[in-house]
């Protein structure tokens, strides 16, 4: 895990936060002086996790840094922390996503231009927290927040670990070969008719985390995923149908 000399609680008011080009967590509330302090700390966290990710993937240089994120208007970094854990306050994961305009081959070998293709750009869970379901939690939170489904994501230069992760948890196996370094799976070019239904599926994993977060199911769904009251009732009824 990544420890820092400063208090990370000012960044992580919840276990997972989203960081965009302003380098502020989406939960940030404060004045300009506080914003400057938080962006400085966020920059250090992103740079450190980016370096750890590069080492884990045996890359010559990091593909994620605060400077690169600041220069991009269509990328988001999800950071995950363990607050008040047995190791103290530590940052344990990073997931960078974004959209790109790509030329891709479909399953018939035809070239198709995809505007704003959904891309997984970097994914790292600290070695001490791997094989514990932490990566699945982080990935599912991203899917829910972005209203994405796994099969619709293109993956930039995935490691073998990430390929196995997608296979294990999301059943993604059949790769459509590409000339570039992106990996995508059969179903990527299918119609998006199931997306609205699938957005409810990703909530299932989190119901078991209510005790950990110390809040009720309905409040957890509302606080974390910002669904409307109607959406929340639909989700709960799907999971716990009334007899």
TrEMBL record:
The keyword Translocase does not apply. It is an enzyme of class 2 (transferase). GO terms for molecular function: tubulin N-acetyltransferase activity. InterPro entries: Atat, GNAT_ATAT. Residues 2-189 form the N-acetyltransferase domain. It comes from the Eukaryota. It catalyses: L-lysyl-[alpha-tubulin] + acetyl-CoA = N(6)-acetyl-L-lysyl-[alpha-tubulin] + CoA + H(+). The keyword Acyltransferase applies. Its EC number is 2.3.1.108. The record marks 57 as: Crucial for catalytic activity. Specifically acetylates 'Lys-40' in alpha-tubulin on the lumenal side of microtubules. Promotes microtubule destabilization and accelerates microtubule dynamics; this activity may be independent of acetylation activity. Acetylates alpha-tubulin with a slow enzymatic rate, due to a catalytic site that is not optimized for acetyl transfer. Enters the microtubule through each end and diffuses quickly throughout the lumen of microtubules. Belongs to the acetyltransferase ATAT1 family. This is Alpha-tubulin N-acetyltransferase. The gene is CG3967_4.
């Amino acid at each position: 895990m990544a420890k820092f000399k400063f208090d990370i609680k000012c960044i992580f008011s919840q276990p997972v936060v989203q960081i965009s080009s302003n380098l502020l967590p989406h939960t940030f509330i404060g004045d300009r002086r506080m914003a400057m302090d938080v962006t400085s700390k966020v920059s250090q966290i992103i740079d450190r996790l980016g370096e750890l990710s590069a080492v884990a993937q045996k890359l010559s240089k990091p593909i994620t840094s605060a400077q690169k994120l600041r220069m991009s208007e269509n990328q988001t970094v999800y950071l995950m922390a363990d607050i008040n854990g047995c190791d103290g306050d530590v940052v344990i994961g990073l997931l960078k996503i974004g959209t790109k305009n790509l030329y891709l081959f479909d399953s018939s070998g035809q070239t198709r231009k995809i505007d704003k293709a959904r891309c997984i750009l970097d994914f790292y869970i600290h070695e001490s927290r791997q094989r514990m379901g932490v990566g699945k939690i982080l990935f599912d939170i991203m899917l829910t927040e972005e209203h994405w489904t796994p099969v619709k994501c293109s993956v930039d230069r995935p490691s073998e670990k990430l390929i196995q992760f997608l296979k294990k948890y999301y059943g993604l196996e059949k790769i459509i070969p590409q000339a570039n370094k992106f990996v995508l799976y059969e179903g990527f070019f299918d119609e998006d008719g199931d997306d609205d239904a699938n957005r409810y599926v990703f909530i299932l994993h989190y119901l078991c985390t209510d005790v950990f977060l110390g809040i009720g199911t309905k409040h957890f769904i509302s606080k974390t995923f910002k669904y409307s009251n109607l959406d929340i009732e639909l989700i709960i009824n799907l999971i716990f149908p009334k007899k």
